């Protein structure tokens, strides 16, 4: 399907433009972190794809109402962007994300010989050639220690988290919305993912668990920012549940009461009610800060990327980012961006 190359203005800080051989320009984010040379990672923006409004233009979600042919064309552009960074870039594996804590080990797909072309395909026209729709892979994190498949998570306000290791050839991608991040009694998607990640590192390097965590690198991608993410008291309570008193103060600081002097955040769930009981309060939640607290508690010290400032906010930067909260009510839907991480086979050390 022909898609005219879009005009790309000067990229804001942290964004890079990629010129393809057909003249098309893609805008994407490349993590600024000291990852080993065998780690390749990127985060897409909305600039450079084929989709019309409300998914304009580089929509990678096949579950948001966009035409399957256009999503396929946009995913082909993602593959081309990956290949520009790594000539032997693997195929991204898309999964059905459910705001849970399940971690998908991509090594099993390689080992068991499952067809990557069907992996994670959950759109209505998936596998139309044979008239069947394969069962989707359901997970909110993916992990691999082998070249061959790319860990991929789709987001449009939720927080993407990428993990790499200084010594071991292990990478992971995580989808952390507030439900998955909070989890149950302090055990959410980051806790589940890091446990699997550390186990994979230990199998390769034999490091003690604490050292394996200390040598882990985390990158936080764009998400809805604290000035825009208005939530109810139940969200705040979900992050406080199960915490000892000594740990609650840091979490409380990640929730700010909306100022009456400021207008409500665009497309907020609802306006703040009149002052009343605690369970009626509205709060502005800082997802990146909450993720940093969780990672630090798990022993991860090297955390890069999203610091909660305005340039990282998906809702506030419509030129570059899709936002479900901003667009769904106003336009009826929104596109999805992808966070991808994989192992560069040419740069990877011999298996440990």
UniProtKB/TrEMBL annotation:
Top-level lineage group:
Bacteria
Cross-referenced InterPro entries = Cu_polyphenol_OxRdtase, Cu_polyphenol_OxRdtase_sf, Cytotoxic_necrot_fac-like_cat
- UniProt xrefs under SUPFAM superfamilies: CNF1/YfiH-like putative cysteine hydrolases
Q: Which reaction does it catalyse?
A: S-methyl-5'-thioadenosine + phosphate = 5-(methylsulfanyl)-alpha-D-ribose 1-phosphate + adenine; inosine + phosphate = alpha-D-ribose 1-phosphate + hypoxanthine; adenosine + phosphate = alpha-D-ribose 1-phosphate + adenine; adenosine + H2O + H(+) = inosine + NH4(+)
Q: Name one GO molecular function term.
A: S-methyl-5-thioadenosine phosphorylase activity
One Pfam family of this chain: Cu-oxidase_4
- Assigned keywords, A-Z: Hydrolase, Metal-binding, Transferase, Zinc
Q: Which PANTHER family match?
A: PURINE NUCLEOSIDE PHOSPHORYLASE LACC1, UNCHARACTERIZED PROTEIN YFIH
Write out the similarity annotation: Belongs to the purine nucleoside phosphorylase YfiH/LACC1 family.
Descriptive protein name = Laccase
